[in-house]
Design goal:
Layout lengths: L5 E5 L1 H18 L5 E7 L3 H9 L5 E9 L12 E4 L9 E9 L3 H12 L4 E9 L12 E5 L22 E4 L1
Parallel strand pairs: 2-3, 2-5, 5-6, 6-7
Antiparallel strand pairs: 1-8, 3-4
Helix pairs in contact: 1-2
C-alpha cells in the first residue's frame, strides 16, 4: 500500500487545534466531578495522551484493550476483551476514549460494560466519527472530526500493525 500516494485528510495542525478545544470543553463539563478516562487500546493511545494533556482538572487514567478488527479493514462484529479495566470505577464519571467510531459495536459494548461495573456516568469521546457505517444507535458525546466512509490510517489508526506513528490522518489514492 505504501507505494500508493497518501491523501492527507486531516493535518497534524488541525488535529492539535481540535484536541486543544476539546480538552477545554471536557474540562468545563467535568469540573467538580471525579473523572476517570478510559482509553481503548491500541488505537486511542496517541489521541488519549494528547487529549489528557489539555485537561485542566484532576483525572485518573486507565486502559482497556478490545479487539474487533484483527488485521482487517472491516469490523468482525464481535468484541473481544483482551485486557479489562484495571481499576475499580464504581461511582466514577467515566469518559471512554477511542480513535474512531464506525459501526459503534465496540463502543456500545464498552459503555454497557462500564455501566455494569457501577460507573456514576459514562460518556464517549472519539477522534473520528464515521456515521455512515453505524450499526447501532450511538452518537459520540465528544468528537474531533466526522469523516466519510473511507479507510483511514495514522495518528493511532493502523493498517496491519503499522502507521500508528504517522502524525496526521490519511488514506491511499
Amino acid at each position: 500500500m505504501d507505494n500508493k500516494k497518501r491523501n492527507i485528510l486531516i493535518t497534524k495542525e488541525q488535529i492539535a487545534n481540535k484536541i486543544a478545544d476539546l480538552g477545554a470543553e471536557i474540562s468545563k463539563d467535568y469540573e467538580n466531578k471525579n473523572l476517570y478516562v478510559l482509553a481503548l487500546l491500541r488505537g486511542s493511545f496517541i489521541f488519549a495522551a494528547d487529549l489528557v494533556r489539555y485537561l485542566t482538572i484532576p483525572v485518573k487514567i486507565g486502559f482497556m484493550t478490545t479487539s474487533s478488527y484483527g488485521h482487517s479493514e472491516e469490523s468482525s462484529g464481535y468484541v473481544n476483551v483482551v485486557n479489562d479495566i484495571p481499576d475499580n470505577i464504581e461511582g466514577l464519571d467515566v469518559l471512554i476514549i477511542d480513535d474512531i467510531i464506525d459501526t459503534g459495536i465496540t463502543m456500545e459494548f464498552v459503555i454497557q460494560h462500564v455501566k455494569k461495573l457501577g460507573a456514576r456516568s459514562v460518556n464517549c469521546c472519539v477522534l473520528l466519527d464515521k456515521p455512515e457505517r453505524r450499526k447501532v444507535s450511538l452518537v459520540p458525546d465528544y468528537c474531533c472530526f466526522q469523516i466519510p466512509d473511507v479507510f483511514v490510517v495514522g495518528y493511532g489508526l493502523n493498517y496491519g500493525d503499522y502507521y500508528r506513528n504517522i502524525p496526521y490522518i490519511f488514506n491511499w489514492e
